[in-house]
Design brief:
Distance between the termini: 43 Å
Order of helices and strands: EHEEHEEHHEEEHHHHHEEHHH
Largest sheet: 7 strands, mixed
Number of helices: 12
Strand content: 15-25%
Strand order of the largest sheet: 1-8-7-6-5-2-3
Helix content: 25-40%
Number of domains: 2
Structural class: alpha/beta
Radius of gyration: 22 Å
Number of strands: 10
Length: 351
């Protein structure tokens, strides 16, 4: 992969914005949110030192979209190329997880793949992980090594730009006048900054250094009362799943317009009481504690069994967003401590 140096990000962002719509992080209070880049107005662009509070899935799975209509024919939206800047390693891993669900060989969602194929990814190093970040527990790190078209690392006198795909290589060749070679001292500085961020993560999550996999902890806790006790604080705001970059449940509903009927596709949440309700009124997850258990079982057991990886990337967004104060880290610690005190139980997981 080609690695180059640039003193200022604005010429890079302007070059991207010439080719396609570009979305960049903007500070909103204490957090970052994505906003469309305006090369004329965005003169004070701020490099985001941490992931945005909004998940990247919003670009690939709209909260609500038209899926079909009658009478037809239905013509899906024409997706134009677009770029997103400032994605972190946890964001890239969440995209890889969504790819498994919506772009695998067995089934490809045409709405998802249309957006995914037109997306130009510009990731950046995470230099100041939040207290809620726990990506290192789930095989993550504060910098990306794959899954991007371009990656940007901030250093004292500028930015290191690394191409990670053919699209990225083509871009740096087209705009080669923007870049210079990377001084050795600058590369050493980048590596030092990455090591410091990694150390900060390890110190923040020292209590989560479990002696067995999270899958074993959750799968062995089917009979645990921790789920019910933790659910007492839940107010069913569903923020944990809405803000999660990998939660992808949706439901379809019909609506009548003036001259046609539309089938809409909309985000759903397994924390919603009616989520698991079936015809006749039965609901296997009517109890809130069961819904919390299902959420963790899906992320750490069912998904691992099918795809071989956790569905959690450790971004910590759910920790920040939970109105009821349920902390995923505390739930996992309590389950782990409970098993240590009582011995591991054989799971009775109903899939």
């Amino acid at each position: 992969m080609e690695t180059l140096f640039i003193n200022d990000l604005k010429p890079l962002l302007d070059a991207v914005a010439k080719q396609m719509d570009l979305y960049v992080p903007k500070k909103s209070g204490d957090y970052y949110v994505f906003s469309r880049y305006d090369k004329e107005g965005d003169k004070g662009f701020e490099f985001n030192n941490i992931r945005t509070c909004t998940p990247i899935k919003e670009f690939l799975l709209p909260v609500c979209e038209l899926a079909a209509m009658t009478p037809g024919p239905f013509q899906p939206e024409d997706i134009k190329p677009f770029a997103v800047f400032g994605l972190k390693d946890c964001d890239l891993r969440s995209i890889a997880i969504l790819d498994k669900v919506f772009a695998e060989e067995e089934f490809k969602d045409p709405f998802y793949t249309a957006r995914r194929d037109k997306m130009f990814i510009i990731s950046s190093d995470c230099s100041d992980p939040a207290e809620s970040c726990l990506c290192n527990i789930f095989d993550g790190q504060p910098f990306a090594e794959s899954g991007f078209d371009l990656n940007v690392s901030k250093v004292a006198d500028g930015f290191i730009v690394e191409a990670g795909s053919q699209n990225g290589e083509d871009f740096v060749k087209k705009y080669s006048q923007l870049f210079t070679s990377v001084p050795k001292a600058v590369m050493a500085e980048r590596d030092q900054r990455r090591a410091q961020a990694q150390k900060q993560l390890q110190e923040n999550n020292a209590e989560l250094a479990f002696d067995r996999s999270v899958k074993d902890i959750v799968e062995g806790s089917w009979e645990s009362e921790v789920f019910d006790s933790e659910a007492k604080n839940c107010i069913e705001c569903q923020a944990c799943t809405r803000i999660c970059p990998t939660c992808h449940c949706f439901y379809l509903y019909d609506t009548k317009q003036k001259d046609y009927f539309a089938k809409m596709k909309m985000w759903d949440s397994c924390m919603r009481m009616a989520y698991a309700a079936v015809a006749g009124g039965a609901n296997p997850n009517e109890v809130l504690g069961d819904r919390l258990k299902h959420r963790l079982m899906h992320k750490f057991v069912y998904f691992v069994d099918r795809y071989g990886t956790n569905m959690c990337v450790g971004c910590g967004r759910c920790v920040d967003a939970e109105a009821g104060g349920i902390d995923l880290r505390e739930v996992l610690k309590k389950l782990s401590h409970e098993q240590k005190g009582e011995g591991k139980k054989k799971a009775r997981v109903a899939k």
